[in-house]
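Folded chain entry —
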Amino acid sequence: IRLSQELPNMCPTLRDILHPVYYEILKALENDELTRTNIVSRVSFMSKSAVYLRLQKLVSWGLVEEKWVTENVKRPYKVYFLTERGRRVLEAMELIKETIEGNQSKT
């Protein structure tokens, strides 16, 4: 993946995007639309504010989108979900993870 072509706005470096918390957030959103609170509960090793900050970076990079849920609810709330770019980046991250873990089991 050529990140400079794939990601709008502020383009992250490879070092940025490979931070474990980004992987955990993308992984949490792999099959679900989630609220910030739900994401925080799935990424429990970081503070709520740290997860929120990184979630906003993923939005600015075009890997995650947010939308308001307003129909049939008492109070509107925001949910987050993966974009197609986010899915491709998550797939690449999983390939890297599998490659690294595969090499570690051989040593």
